[in-house]
Design brief:
The structure holds two protein chains of two kinds. In chain A, 30% of the residues lie in helices and 18% in strands. Chain A has 36 helices and 47 strands. In chain A, the strands form 14 sheets. Chain A has a six-stranded mixed sheet, with helices on one face. Chain B has helices at 14-24, 46-54, 76-93, 110-126; strands at residues 6-11, 33-38, 59-65, 100-105. Chain B contains four helices and four strands. Chain B has a four-stranded parallel sheet, with helices on both faces. By secondary structure, chain B is α/β, with parallel strands linked by helices. The chains are: A alpha/beta, B alpha/beta. The interface between A and B is large, with 63 and 58 residues.
């Protein structure tokens, strides 16, 4: 069995080659590099043409892509071609589209829902588009399936220790979707309200806006989501099957413990937190002042965590009240130690144990939990970190004097915004200052002796502390000194002698990857492992530990596939983006005057409009933010964010390669060294490279592509193999097998049982049009038995639903209200791949004769999409449109169209270079070929011929002679008789008349020697040939996609007469290619075996025709004949009719009619146009 | 929203492509416009055009290919001739002949179609409704 031809390239030429091969009966794999066919590469003529011309090529592209013998592979970059002729394997990498092309109906709801706007700068105009969009923004494509633009992981997301999808929630907030933003955050981490206030936000440090102005205020947005989500915090348990509800004990209710408990509960476990204090939250409660993190916020978060099944026992100190051993006995299977670091580090300077010296934690604890403590007038806080700032700000609220912070570094290591707030509140910071001694009056603190410092390095690699400079002593007066230089864990309280503790910082030793201690089943994390650190790292540790515990309890490898490395962020060049300056929003705060003596939260949170504006500053570094709104709105489940690049191996006998023709497509094909003369060098046997010079015309490209395809077809000889029946021709059964044919035929239109199917189009129609109301109204129409609603009509499943409805309800006729607008076989500029697919599936699966048993109304583009703001009227209109479809189909009668056999012979009239080349190529396909040379003369033209013309023509003549083809001279008259498929040409010479039968006719019109002059007097005016030519559109060099070019693909040839007009100045190579193009079309026509009239063909009722001839006056295909009684009447060969219907308008008696748009159907359509909304006539 | 009703007869080719393009570009127009597709405008005759008025149209817009772009190479004068005949009859019926308009649009020109249609609907609004007494 033939493996067919792989056509590599996405250009119009590639599509033309694929279509040619398929029409000749060869299986084609069309491998396009981009997301859509026809958007091509550098040598692609299509990308250079205007939108109007682009649409003109549309029927060709669509026919190629939807031909049953063509398989289209988009997004495929070819890597290699291995094997040899007859056994090639084309290996390609298919880039992820993130949308399943087989399901997407291009309804555009994802695009509407997309929260990302990316800049687009066409011709300097500033526009934007969403991250999910049609493959070419603003143009129709094949496939029409959408496409998501992704560029890796955004820097903010990569920097987040929790891996929160920062860009995702920010983009949602930019669209005002607060609930969705909070849910997205809650997929990764709990405690949004806490983190939104106290996180050290490494995300902002990595924000690309730093390179433009200042980072997006991510922390404030995080808080905004937590505080303003209308539905509040709702954590979801996603319990995977097979998880046993094991007990896990967590020691400590700080951020690490809470996060671990949250994650474990989400995974189906039963965590219990043991907290030694009476309050829950660890440092969140005792260490962070209330004016930064209000109690209510903390409690709200704790309650939400408890709500998913976390038990918290306060006032229980593990190690003292209960031991790990006790808990093990009670059934706890795993343990997480998250006891934090509460033991203050000491300065180790004289005077540290004086009265009036306190540690930062005790001060914060006392003031925060209102246990009451005195604060001095002049306070000195020693330390440069967050707790020092917190202690200073806290003390400042109670102190009557000055609060000073002594920082040994050049800058505070605390979060910048908090330091700024502290300074605004009046805290004085002494930089590069070390406390050397606390002075006293012998009893109470009086001041601190300090020295300036120098040196020091904060970087983790070469950390060293600054050193005091001798002789720089000075004294700061103080009556209270707060030491806030960090804390260490107190592990002794745990009473776990076997615990491996780091002597340097009293921290617990764990495997950093898994947080497992030396004892299996016991994990530790947070400050008790790292020493005093920040909240976000503690939460990260909690989540990491929970994952370990889950694996441990399920008996899985705790280490496998995990890493401590941060994900690699996408490296974007912001200059390539349309970045404009937008000022970062400021966090509004309560006035300074209200902060004294008061612990009210200082930062007020962003107002809604500020939050949206701030979120809109995001540059969307990763393009798609993975907010997954598209996934949520897609009713067809076509969105697939997990898509990835795939290898595709495509078997082929031969390869036609368009992609590497410009030499820049990776060079995977060896360039042909010598044969530059030929546009089709063989780089190795079986691989044709189609070279297209940059200035090649569209027609030239199409001709060359067809010539290449024909060469391949001549090698494969598909006509020698029995032709497989195309799927469309699958035997059509009866509509309902249990009713006999006679009964069906007897049903008169008025009795017809009609079913209606409404396509939701994934919600894009049904979100505007009220389907319930349409159903109720349409069911009232006489003849309508059933109305059904389906989600997608263009898939196989949709077709099956329609078929089973027809069978179940014994339907005669079906109306489908979707996006398809007609049942004709033509492909117009409005058709889409999904509409073709819809029809192909229907004709394969549902035994309905398109146009006769089934009719279509487009309630998508002609209703739902253009009236989205007026659902009421849109629904009325949809009812009317469906009603007119029902009215129309009632009037159609089942007529069988005659099939004409097509003879395997071709007559070539005109023997110029093109004509002879066509004859040669037709002969090579085993067809019987007759050639008639044009009249002698044309001597004047000979001088204009390009060099090589005569030589090539002579060679072709010899080849034909060798093939037994006799070239006849030009006759006195030439005409055709018969019908398409079985013509008989009459060649009248002086002495004799030759009769040649032909299935198809090729005319080589032109001025060169041997060519047939246009309008030659040898063709009699009343004859069939002249009449056919009267409505043929010659394929001559014109601008872009002219009607002749689009017609051949849109309407398909039924007459079998192919006109080829050549120009003298065309090079011989081009002339030969033009010949090949016509040969391919003629042989494809002959190869069909039979030809059917178009379903739009008119019929003329002999009884009604009065012989006025008005129809024949406008259409040369109509012939005026004489009846046996001598009266004139009009007649037409249906197989010739183009189906425009102009004759119907001209006919005064109504003798001419057309099945799809007869007067009856059009009147019925019009009468139903306002059926639901009738005119209300007021009686005067 | 326009109260005037219009039947838009469009040919299958450049005419329909502009109707389609309008939808695909996200443009909107009043639902009182109803599109009726024919294969070529040359198929229409006075009987059908007047039928549109009979069923309640205030105006009829014919949307077809620009001259020289017809897939059937039909002479645009043919359509004009049928329209002329129709307008003569409209005069007799007391219908203003401006209610029947032929518009040629460029292939795929969605905004061109919408602006032509909406201005036509506006013009109809300014005329009296075709059927007296209709709200």
């Amino acid at each position: 069995m033939a493996r067919g031809v792989a056509v590599i390239g996405g250009s119009v030429g590639a599509a033309q080659a694929a279509l040619t091969l398929a029409e000749l009966g060869v299986e084609v794999k069309l491998v396009a590099p981009l997301a859509s066919l026809g958007t091509g590469n550098t040598t692609d003529a299509f990308s250079l043409v205007s939108p109007e011309e682009r649409l003109g090529l549309w029927p060709l592209l669509l026919r190629a892509a939807s031909h049953p013998l063509v398989t289209l592979y988009t997004d495929c970059e070819v890597e290699s071609i291995s094997g040899r002729q007859g056994r090639f394997t084309v290996r390609a990498t298919k880039a992820p589209r993130y949308i399943r092309a087989d399901l997407c109906s291009a309804c555009g709801r994802c695009q509407e829902a997309c929260s990302v706007q990316l800049p687009l700068l066409p011709d300097g105009r500033r526009m934007s588009h969403s991250a999910v969009h049609a493959p070419v923004v603003g143009a129709k494509t094949i496939p029409s399936a959408y496409y998501i633009e992704k560029a890796g992981i955004a820097p903010c997301r990569a920097a987040c220790p929790l891996g929160i999808n920062v860009q995702g929630f920010v983009s949602l907030l930019s669209k005002g979707k607060v609930d969705e933003a909070l849910s997205l955050i809650a997929e990764t981490a709990p405690l949004a309200g806490v983190l939104g206030r106290v996180c050290t936000h490494p995300c902002e440090d990595s924000c690309k806006r730093n390179e433009v102005d200042s980072p997006v205020f991510i922390q404030a947005l995080h808080r905004y989501a937590a505080d303003n989500a209308p539905s509040g915090i709702n954590y979801v348990r996603k319990v995977p099957s097979g998880v046993k509800r094991e007990w896990v004990a967590i020691v400590g209710s700080g951020p690490a413990g809470l996060a671990a408990a949250w994650e474990l509960a989400r995974r189906g476990y039963r965590p219990t937190i043991f907290e030694s204090h009476a309050v829950v939250g660890g440092m969140l409660a005792t260490g962070i002042p209330r004016f930064r993190l209000p109690r209510e916020v903390r409690e709200r978060e704790v309650e939400a965590i408890k709500a998913i099944g976390v038990d918290i026992k306060t006032g229980v100190t593990v190690g003292r009240d209960v031991t790990i051993g006790d808990l093990r006995e009670r059934g706890y299977r795993a343990f997480f130690l998250a006891i934090g670091a509460h033991q203050n580090n000491k300065l180790n300077i004289p005077g540290e144990d004086l009265e009036g010296v306190v540690d930062g934690m005790s001060l914060l604890f006392a003031l925060n939990l209102r246990v009451g403590t005195s604060v001095g007038s002049n306070v000195v806080v020693v330390g440069g970190g967050n707790s020092a700032v917190d202690a200073a700000r806290t003390a400042n609220r109670r102190s009557k004097g000055v609060v000073r912070v002594l920082c040994i570094w050049e800058e505070m290591t605390a979060v910048k915004e908090d330091v700024e707030e502290a300074i605004r509140e009046g805290v004085v910071i002494e930089y590069r200052t070390a406390a050397m001694e606390i002075l006293s009056d012998g009893n109470k603190v009086t001041g601190v002796r300090c020295q300036r410092t120098e040196g020091g390095d904060l970087s983790p690699e070469s950390f060293c502390l600054p050193q005091p400079i001798a002789g720089t002593d000075f004294v700061i007066d103080a009556d209270q000194v707060v030491v806030a230089i960090g804390q260490r864990p107190n592990t002794t309280v745990l009473n776990m002698t076997w615990l491996d503790v780091n002597p340097a910082g009293d921290t617990i030793r764990v495997d950093p990857l898994t947080l497992e201690t030396g004892v299996p089943g016991i994990f530790a994390g947070g400050d008790c492992v790292t020493g005093s650190n920040n909240v976000v790292e503690a939460v990260a540790a909690g989540l990491r530990a929970a994952q370990s515990i889950d694996r441990y309890l399920r008996g899985r490898d705790v280490r496998k596939g995990r890493t401590l490395e941060k994900p690699q962020p996408v490296d974007i060049d912001i200059r390539e983006r349309d970045v404009s300056y937008h000022k970062r929003s400021r966090m509004p705060g309560i006035p300074l005057s209200r902060r004294v003596g008061n612990f009210e939260e200082t930062a007020l949170g962003l107002p809604a409009e500020v939050a949206e504006r701030e979120a809109s500053r995001c540059l969307n570094c990763a393009m798609c933010s993975e907010c997954r709104e598209c996934e949520r709105v897609c009713e067809l489940d076509a969105v697939f964010h997990g898509d990835s690049a795939q290898h595709v191996d495509i078997p082929a006998d031969l390869v036609i390669d368009f992609a590497s023709a410009d030499g820049g497509a990776g060079g995977y094909l060896a360039r042909h060294e010598t044969d530059h003369d030929s546009p089709l060098p063989l780089s190795r046997p079986g691989i044709y490279t189609v070279n297209l010079e940059e200035d090649i015309s569209l027609k030239g490209e199409l001709a060359r592509a067809t010539a290449a395809a024909l060469k391949a077809a001549i090698v494969l000889k598909p006509w020698e193999a029995p032709r497989a029946a195309p799927p469309d021709a699958a035997a059509r059964g009866d509509l309902h097998p249990d009713v006999t044919r006679e009964q069906v035929e007897r049903t008169t239109p008025s009795e017809a049982r009609i079913g209606v199917t409404l396509c939701r189009c994934g919600g894009s129609i049904s979100s505007v049009v009220d389907f319930n109301r349409v159903t109720n109204e349409v069911l009232k129409l006489p003849g309508v038995c059933i109305v059904q609603e389906i989600s997608q009509a263009c898939t196989e499943e949709g077709a099956s639903r329609i078929a089973s409805q027809a069978a179940e309800w014994k339907l005669d006729k079906v109306v489908l209200a979707a996006c398809r607008c007609c049942g004709l076989e033509q492909i117009c500029f409005s058709c889409t791949d999904r509409r073709v697919m819809c029809q192909q599936n229907l004709s394969r699966i549902a035994p309905l004769d398109n146009g006769r048993d089934i009719d279509f109304v487009n309630i998508r583009e002609q209703c739902a999409w253009v009236h989205p703001d007026d659902p009421e009227e849109a629904t009325n209109k949809a009812i009317d449109m469906v009603s007119s479809g029902v009215a129309r189909i009632k009037g159609t009668s089942t007529t069988t169209s005659e099939e004409h056999p097509v003879a395997a012979s071709v007559l070539v009239l005109g023997a110029g270079l093109s004509g002879l080349a066509a004859a040669r190529d037709l002969l090579a396909q085993g067809l019987t070929v007759s050639v008639v040379s044009g009249p002698d003369g044309g001597a004047a033209a000979t001088e204009q011929l390009t060099s090589g013309y005569d030589e090539r023509r002579a060679t072709l003549l010899r080849e034909l002679e060798d093939g037994g083809v006799l070239v006849r001279p030009w006759p006195r008259t030439v005409d055709l008789q018969g019908s398409p498929g079985s013509y008989e040409a009459l060649l009248s010479y002086e002495s004799e008349t030759n009769r040649i039968s032909a299935g198809a006719v090729v005319l080589n019109l032109g001025e060169a020697p041997g060519e047939m002059p246009a309008d030659d007097s040898a063709v009699p005016e009343e004859g069939l040939l002249h009449r056919i030519l009267g409505r043929a559109l010659p394929t001559e060099e014109g601008n872009g996609a002219d009607p002749a070019l689009s017609r051949s693909a849109a309407l398909k040839e039924t007459a079998g007469v192919f006109v080829l007009s050549t120009k003298l100045d065309k090079s011989p190579v081009e002339q030969v290619e033009m010949g090949a193009m016509v040969a391919a079309r003629a042989s494809a026509y002959v190869g069909q075996g039979t030809v059917c009239p178009r379903s739009t063909a008119v019929t003329i009722d002999d009884k009604l025709c009065r012989g006025c001839g008005d129809c024949a006056a406008i259409c040369s295909l109509i012939e005026m004949r004489q009846r046996s009684d001598g009266t004139p009447c009009a007649s037409i060969d249906a197989a010739l009719c183009l189906g425009c219907g102009a004759c119907i308008a001209q006919c005064p008696t109504g003798a001419i009619t057309q099945p799809s748009q007869g007067n009856q159907q059009l009147v019925a359509t019009l009468e139903a146009l306002w059926a639901t909304t009738p005119m209300s006539l007021e009686v005067a | 929203m326009s109260k005037a009703r219009a039947v838009v007869f469009t040919c299958n080719w450049d005419g329909l492509s502009s109707v389609e393009a309008a939808a695909q570009m996200g443009l909107t127009y009043p639902a009182s416009a109803r599109v009726v597709r024919v294969i070529c405008l040359s198929r229409l005759h006075p009987g059908l055009l007047l039928k549109a008025f009979e069923v309640g149209a205030d105006g009829v817009l014919l949307l077809g290919c620009e001259p020289g772009k017809c897939q059937f190479d039909t002479d645009a004068a043919l359509v004009e001739r049928e329209c002329h005949k129709t307008r003569e009859l409209m005069k007799l019926l007391g219908l203003a002949e401006e209610r029947l308009v032929v518009a040629h649009v460029a292939r795929g020109d969605g905004s061109g179609f919408v602006s032509r249609l909406t201005s036509f609907l506006d013009e109809l609004e300014h005329m009296e409704l075709a059927v007296p007494g209709r709200a």
